[in-house]
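Intended use. Records like the one below are meant for learning the mapping from a protein sequence to its folded structure. Do not use them to infer anything beyond what is encoded.
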Amino acid sequence: MSYKYSLEIERDYQELEKKINALKDDALKKNIDFSQEIATLEAKLRDDKEGKYNTLSGWHTIQIARHPQRPTTIDYINAIFDDFVELHGDRYYRDDPAVVGGIARFNGVPVTVVGHQKGQDTNQNLQRNFGMPHPEGYRKFCRLTKQAEKFKRPVICFIDTQGAYPGMEAEERGQGWAIAQTLMQMSILKTPVISLVIGEGGSGGALALGVADRVLMLSYAIYSVISPEACASILCKDVSRGPEMAEYLKLTAKDLYSMGLIDEIIPEPLEGAHTNPTATYKIVQERLQMHLDDLLSGDIDQLPEKRYNKLRCIGVCE
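Structure written out for the chain above:
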């Protein structure tokens, strides 16, 4: 991207970064040794960053998860899969660009890969409907996963959406039914399914792709039944209380892992996946391979029952 988007948390230490850069420029132009001062400030900058990112609030985590430069599903596909062939359409109505999917090779293994697709600028977001699928998007997802089961291909899902599109035309075409059908099909699919939340995991629009044998999350991703803003609007009649609701919703990867709702947190670079996509792709590829190997080593016919038991245990308190 050609522009620099600043998060609220980043603005706290940008002045210190500017001061370091100014010292470096002066040292170069005036041939003055500021190495000691620069080293001291850089150490302080590192400490400040680590302190802030290791104690993120829920609201700050949401801001990182929504960062417009954060890698999208297509970015992950291009980086860690080979020979990707995109498949289009739901065979009922039309293709939904908010859901991208097709067949590819993952470290030599044929797989079906599918996920929500946001844009990275205004035009792309309008084209992709901001990553919010219509019913035909979920029907496309069902078609591709059923095809994967037929040809014994594992399914890898990337979750990144505010939620399913809530517009009138989506409701007219059966949005709730499409999500329900997706949930049902995913629960009985006889092929390994791994889902990874790479950004926003919002509402039923995300859950539709989250019924899996393994559910993973990037460390700054979020996964929730509702957005904080919508929660604040419904419960408090005040959307400005979104940051407060973010803490109550327990939507961060750490919260969800502690409650047993996800299987693993995949660490990101300190300031987020957008600051070092290459390192993020590498660790995602490694962790996906580990989980895929584990699932393929077991009895495929037993996967639906194990998936059922896994889901039944969610939310049980002893």
